[in-house]
Amino acid sequence: TGGHTTEILRLLSCLSESYSPIHYIFADSDKMSEAKIRSFEQKRAETFSNSKFTLDRIPRSREVRQSWTSSVVTTLYSMLYSLPLTYKLKPDLILCNGPGTCVPVCISALLLGLLGIQRAIIVYVESICRVETLSLSGKILYYFSDYFIVQWPHLKEKYPKSVYLGRIV
Amino acid sequence: FRFKDSLAEDLRSADLVISHAGAGSCLETLEKGKPLVVVINEKLMNNHQLELAKQLHRDGHVLCCNCSTLVETLQSMDLSTLKPFPPGQPEKFALFLDKVVGFQ
Question: Is the separation of the CB atoms in B85 and B30 below 8 Å?
Fold first, then answer.
């Protein structure tokens, strides 16, 4: 969604050509991200002529302030889509930054790892908006990601296993 | 106006921006180097959205007020006290990620 997409595209902006193909996954209810991504990839193709990317949508796993119990149900529903999709894509690296959409994808990747099918490195970057508290996705993925990056020093103190690189978006 | 695709043009020609505490609005304005007054409506906002505005205020990048103190803030403000907002560094992230995946 919106701010998350802008942030993640900034994170991608300095990555080398080796990070290809990039598979973007976003919520089916998201109307604006596709345009932003295409515009970003168009610019990227000017520098890296062989860059490839794909776009996939999965059902949105949680609305803002949706209750815990119903969120579990909607996340499980999203997993009906994210599991076959992650199996098909077999990513080496998953980069996510906090929308609910990333939780079913990461859980799917963890499952595939447990089953010995594909082991993906999960890198989570918490949004720059999070200065003192983590998002719900962050609270969950702090324990399940391989690298958890925060952008403010206070969060690094609170969550010692996190990585602090300063402001990166 | 209702919803424009981008406020970039308006931002470019503005001398002062008065905005709600939305992260996108704040960051976009600060990155263009425009002075920013953030109006906070504690009743409307959930706590996490305030975090960034408060931090930016603490760091001296924005002026803060609420709806009732806006006029007085505009009358008495000294924009020269605002500190410039350095851009983020995605290249640091790229370096980190290269190490993680083994591209060196």
Answer: yes
| Residue B80 CB neighbour total at 10 angstroms | 6
Token pair belonging to A50: 């062989």
Q: Does A36 contact B at CB distance below 8 Å? A: no
Number of domains in chain B: 1
Q: Does the distance separating the beta carbons of A130 and B48 come in below 8 Å? A: yes
- Nearest chain B residue to A132 by CA distance is B51
For B52-95, write each residue's pLDDT tens digit.
888 999 999 999 998 889 999 999 999 899 999 999 999 999 99
Count CB atoms within 10 A of the CB of residue B37: 19
Between chain A and chain B, how many beta carbons pairs sit less than 8 Å apart? Answer: 76
Among 3.40.50, 3.30.70, 3.90.70, 3.30.460, name the CATH number for the domain at A2-164.
3.40.50
Q: What is the pLDDT of residues A106-146, one digit of tens each?
A: 999 999 999 999 999 999 999 998 999 999 999 999 999 99
Flag if B93 and A6 touch (Cβ within 8 Å).
no
**ipTM score here?**
0.93
